[in-house]
Each structure stands twice: as C-alpha cells, then as structure tokens.
Amino acid sequence: MPGPGRARAARRPTLEQVAAEAGVSRGTVSRVVNGSLEVSAKTLRLVQDAIDKLGYVPNQAARSLVTRRTDTVLLVVSESEARVFTEPFLGGLVRGLSQELATTPLQLNLMMASTARQHERVEQLVRHGHVDGVALISLHGDDPLPRNLAAAGAPVVVNGRPVIEIPGVPYVDADNLAGARAATEYLYRQGRRRIATITGPQDMCAGIDRLAGFRAALKGRRGVTRLVAQGDFGQADGERAMRELLAEDPRLDAVFAASDLMAAGALRALRAAGRGVPDDVAVVGFDDSDVARNTDPALTSVRQPVQQMGRELARLLISRISRPDQELAPVILPTELLCRESA
Description:
The chain has 3 domains: 4-67, lambda repressor-like DNA-binding domains (434 Repressor (Amino-terminal Domain)); 72-174 and 306-333, Rossmann fold; 176-303, Rossmann fold (3-Layer(aba) Sandwich). Helix 13 (260-272) links the parallel strand 8 and strand 9. It is built from 15 helices and 12 strands. The strands form 2 sheets. Strands 2-1-3-4-5-11 form a 6-stranded parallel β-sheet, with helices on both faces. It has a 6-stranded mixed β-sheet with strand order 7-6-8-9-10-12, with helices on both faces. It is α/β, with parallel strands linked by helices. It has helices at 4-11, 15-22, 26-33, 41-54, 60-67, 81-84, 88-101, 116-127, 145-151, 176-189, 205-218, 235-248, 260-272, 290-294, 306-322; strands at residues 72-77, 107-112, 133-137, 156-159, 171-174, 194-198, 225-229, 254-257, 282-287, 300-303, 331-333, 336-338. Helix 10 (176-189) runs parallel beside helix 11 and helix 12 (235-248) crosses helix 13. It starts with a helix and ends in a 5-residue tail after the last strand. 47% of the residues lie in helices and 16% in strands. Keywords: DNA-binding, Transcription, Transcription regulation.
C-alpha cells in the first residue's frame, strides 16, 4: 500500500491536466510556468485560472535551475528620493511601466541611484544574479551605470536618450526637439518678440534637445530678443530663473519653460513681479502633467505621452530579456502642443 506522501504525489495535478483545463497545449503551460514573456495576456489568464482551479504547484527549485530567472526587474532612477516622489513625469512613467509588466510574471522593484554607493548596490544585485533586467530612468551626463550593467550581462534599457549612446542598450524618448520648437514657434506667431527659455539640465538630452528646439525655432528671425536661463526641471528653480530673466530684461513678453514644474515656478515669480499672464508675458511649459491643468491660469504645454513611454520601456525590457541577442531600435514618440490660458 502506498504511503500518504506517495498518495498525495499521485493526486497532484499535472501539466497535462492544466493544459486540458485551459484548452491550450502542454508546451504553452510549461512556458507560462517557466516565466516565458512570449505568451499573450489572454493565454496567461487562461493558464493561471486553470492552475488556481486545479491547485497546481510547480516545482520552483527545478524551474529556477532550468530558467535561471528571478522574475524580478529593477527600475533605477538616478535622482534623489525627494525628486522621485514629487516629479509628475516620473510618476506617470512608473505607472505605464507597471501596467505593461502586470501582463507578465515579472515583478518590479524600485531603487534610487544618485550616489556612488547606490550605483554600487545596483551593480552588486546584477552581478549576483538577483534581477532579470534593469530599466534606467533620468540619467545625467555620461553615467557609467548602463555601460557597467550591460558589461555584466544584464538586459538593460534606458528612458531618455543617453548623452552618449551605448551599443546594445536601447532607449525610449519623446521628440523633445520638435516639441520645444513647436512651443517657441507658437509664441512667435502670437506676436511675441522678447522670448525667453528656462532650460532643463544640460547634462540630460531632454534638457539639451529642448534648448536646441527653442533656438531652432528662432533661428534667422529678425527683431527677436532671445534670453536663456538655466534650470533643473524643478519648480523652485523655475521661479528663481524667472526672477533672473526679469532682471535681465523687464520687457520680455514670453517664456518657454522646459517643464511644467518650472513653468509653474515662473508663474509665481511673474505674479510676484506684477506681470499679467498672458497679457504681459505668455508662458508655455513641457510635459502636459496635472500641474499644467491646475495652475492659474492653466498652462499651455507640450504633451509627451508619459505613460506610453513607460509601456514602451517595459516592452523593450521584455524583448531584451527574452531575446538578448536581438537588435532593438530606439523608440521615439511624438509630442503635441496643447493650448490653454497661459499663452
């Protein structure tokens, strides 16, 4: 007579039974159990429902030996905690990324990496095989992190075009240059001739490209005064930069800020200086975040599809994990100028 342990093993649901319940092949069930990312969301739900109904329990130890997978991906943000939890752009990006990964077995972990010590912690996790892939956000300058992680064999993707592109590391970005150019040309068409910009950080391609778009829009236009103040995408810096611009040219009549937060700071400085918006000074931001719809007046802003960027970033990462040798092209998403009361 078989013992109780053998009887339990005999009653344990099999892959074949799960496949029959789900109406799919045994191989499809095996791919789901082994964490394959090349299974449709519909099929994944069917198999998971069958597993839940039958009480199937995969042998996780054997699975790990076969797949060498952890089902964990790391989202690394090269900013301080204060910036991460107050920056609308980053929040939207994380939402899109999480939504896309929710259709897979992959779990998302978040880490900040704004210091050398934090960089080392990220690299240790990758070297020790604790994550299946890494998505990097908000890189500054020639950050060595993507290069180091790729050299360690990790699937790596980046949001935002790196200052120095790295072979084999694909990225997702918005068309920052076209968006900034459209915003500045709009101000010019409104009859503004003393036009300023508050730039983003010049060690990030988003900041570099938005300044380039501003300059391209005004290139060759006679009778235009161009003013530039440096910013860091934050609201306090936008307010400080706006005060500097007013001191430089009290007659300026338009400003393009490279983020909605900086535009909101500019509105505060203009109000304090007694300048009306848009009658005296027209203001345009960039992002079309919730900030743009809640300022007074509401901001004209360049919309970038932030959540879609997050989803595309997740898709690139899934492809990189599934097929590490595949060449992946960058994904550049279009922008759109949305006109509101500030301009």
